[in-house]
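Reference record:
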Amino acid sequence: MGGDASRFKALTREQILILYKAGPEALVSLIEYLQVLLKNFQESAELLKAEIEELKERLRELEEQLRKDSHNSSKPPSSDGLKKIPKVRRPSGRKPGGQKGHEGRTLRMVENPEKVVIHKVGRCKHCHRSLEGKEPIGYDRRQVFDIPPIKLEVTEHRAEMKECEGCGKCTTAGFPEDVKHKVQYGSRLKANAAYVKNYALLPYKRAAELFEDLFGAPLCPATVAKVDREVAERLEEVNERIKRNAISSPIAHFDETGMRIEGKLHWLHVCGTQALTYYSPHARRGSDAFDAIGILPSFEGLAVHDGWASYFKYGCEHGLCNAHHLRELTFIDEQYGQPWAKQMIDLLLEIKEKRERSKAKRFASKTIEAFEKRYRDIVAMGMAANPPPPAQPRKRGRKKKSKAANLLERLQQHEKATLAFMHDFSVSFDNNLGERDIRMMKVQQKISGTFRSFEGALSFCRIRSYISTVKKQGMNVMSALQDIFSNRQLLPQLC
């Protein structure tokens, strides 16, 4: 008799009687055979049960992915399609449009226009009598604001050549330092090219076409690329100063996003404050990139980020993005109906709103203690609702946890970072500053596509670091780009 259960057939009464009459050994053999079958069946059942659990877990994960959108996960709004997405933010109660006290921006008439066009009256529109030669008693005024026709202006530099009567030799005057070739483009045109490519985010070809269409300057894409390289080289020193100031900042926001360079996945890293922005590309996402960029290893302030594990390897203070927490909590509340998630949402928003209404610089100690107690009670409630998964046979490694359990573990281990905005009013509730800094870089990839070389990505990041910092400093971007080609010190306020 074999051990294959598929070959087993039910015994008839007559066969059982024959085995009984055959003696004890026949019965023992039958029972041993049945024990082997039972053992094989139990093992097969365990394997089948494990496979069913794996399939159920996979099905749950796929259903979670389908239920996720921008309001309950980190998926971008562009992935939502046309479906209506619930809002996570609470309504402010204010009416749409400009608020009371807001200084509006609209066209206003000027006292001294550059050009005046007189429209004369030739005949009375009532009795049709001629009014030629009669002085006007006044004017009805209207003003049109427009851009004058723009064309390329060519400036010829002529250096005098004079012959000395004493020695008979010729002396030629020197040209300005920035006039180095027989023909070349000027600093204003280069600044415009850098603006169009790196601020308006047009790709090289369309940037060149724009110059020909608007200014009659037939640039080629290679010329725009050459201007980019020149601008990036000139910005090397000021970018180092931006980096040094970022390291010494008391609070900085960090974020990263994927970008393709030479057809391969790379990562764009950003460090931003209220006054500056520093971008850097790298092939890696985690601590290898942070070490190479060189800000976090020396940073001693408070780093606001989205909770990526690599950030916690550094000894600085940390503040977590609660906008991420709200979206994750919303998903758990909507999809699993766990009450603790809604309570945590309400608590975080209550602290945020109370802080916004507060006229003091910090909460009283009793207020902080009360909020901390509620926070820990909610986390404990969540832990009770999400116990650790049971041990699974035949599996190695860490046990896989649910989304809710992972979030609860983060909220418990990093309570101080989650509530950093409660302890220090200068710390943001979220990481919106870092996300805003990185958003335009994503727009660049959608408009212009990938980078063909790492050097091109590095140049773009260096120029965008300068432009973003200039904007935060309240300076005009075009003027700041023109300053790159002058002898002025760029961003002197950054020591």
Q: What stands out?
A: The chain has a mean pLDDT of 88. The CA atoms of residues 261 and 303 lie 27 Å apart.
